[in-house]
């Protein structure tokens, strides 16, 4: 055939079949493409008409995939579209269609059906997720229980291609979106070079710890971390899911961080644990226990990255969400975490107003029953030896430091059966050792549980309930010397290196606390002289008042501790009598006032840390008969001479 002059749709070449320009005549009946009968196996031909450009494109793609060819679009506009062979675009297979005259249909005007490349393309980029969705939509509807691996095999057999992708991992976009919607989230991704250097880098590993999980972990979770790995069921996206979990205060599993890695070996575990160590903010001063099974590379990685933590083994760990593509997998885990935390919040809102979580109370009751089988032998005021049924069932308990040689009290934060038996022997209530009202870093910011050496407690900033604003706070990066009376893990070092002292225009350090009436309270005050000006006895001397009652006179931290920068704490037990049977709370003053009789070098007082414990009544009850809906806190600093009368009895003062 020959082209008419001026017909832009025709090319003069013997290799092509070309439709002459007068083919647009309405009197000629051209063949039409039927997607219902020819959609799966289209036959392309000159003069073939398609209802739209998209119908033409889908037919050409399907034809190319069926022939094992990879095509590209060299021209694509509103009037004309051309496809060529991707390997030989200049002289190989080509097809062109253009819009028909006064119609939206497209007609094949030029077609060269010969492919000079003889190889079948097993790696065919024409096979995209949208192509697979169109091609296998009916098959998916008929097999709703298909697993990803089964569906992959089916598609591979039908298309004779073995390196197609269901979805592309748009890594950086996903990471950016996670950081945008979840500020302070830790997210790391490792990419490796592609074997074909002209192609972009390949995804290898992915690590994430959501900010909300960080906040939950730092609020007071256990000092034991479980790590484990499981196989992913979609091998093209990496074969392992690495996870880290802890237990929350109600003994529920709380996932914190997870990672998708190419395999489970020393390198991948080292990479995961390195990021986990950084997010946990742990160093050699923090006591943590890691639990795992004996997986490949994990033991050696723990020894290399976290050599200072305890390591224990278990038979099995928990996590199963493995049969999804990479983005779907990560989103499913994120949704599971979000849903799980909300379910826990909803459950906790329905709990009875108590100081112990329901599951912890159940554990406590079971341990109380088991504690009756032990015979306690007191060694001193705080230490006891518990004797069981056999010579191997002997345990040592330290009530002051909340330690037991079985380590369950240390790990779970709730007394073990041996500690309960020792408490009974000391005539202490079990619940009273658990209820904390206030735990403050008086002169500094919040101290997360990860920085509390050994005890894993949260120390709040001590800037609430303060009377007035004329206090000085300071932080000194100094070395604290511990002695036999004060254990290293009893209090975080940062509590002793921060302090609150009296400003020049003030006369004392004052706080007001709203506390329940008719209960015993233990006030524990932490002291450490860290300033260069105070290194000797009688340089800073002060009195301590609790509820307008004298708790201590002529207090001298250097005299108590015996040296400069040596910590010490003092215990004071008080009883809140209550002025009115219908009033459940009253404001209690804590005041540190310089002692003028000793003529100390500095008219000043100091406090580093504070804990207030609520002790149960003789019936073992912590509930308030008439609870108040609102707590009244101090608004202004009243005159020291007009402080309200408190109905408080100071019972005893303990020196430690």
TrEMBL record:
GO terms for MF: zinc ion binding
Keyword RNA-binding: no
PROSITE patterns in alphabetical order: ZF_SWIM
Keywords assigned: Metal-binding, Zinc, Zinc-finger
Subcellular location per the Swiss-Prot or TrEMBL entry: Membrane
Topological type in the membrane: Single-pass membrane protein
Limits of the SWIM-type domain: 395-427
Keyword Secreted: no
PANTHER family xref list: OS05G0489400 PROTEIN, POLYPROTEIN, PUTATIVE-RELATED
UniProt-recorded name of the protein: SWIM-type domain-containing protein
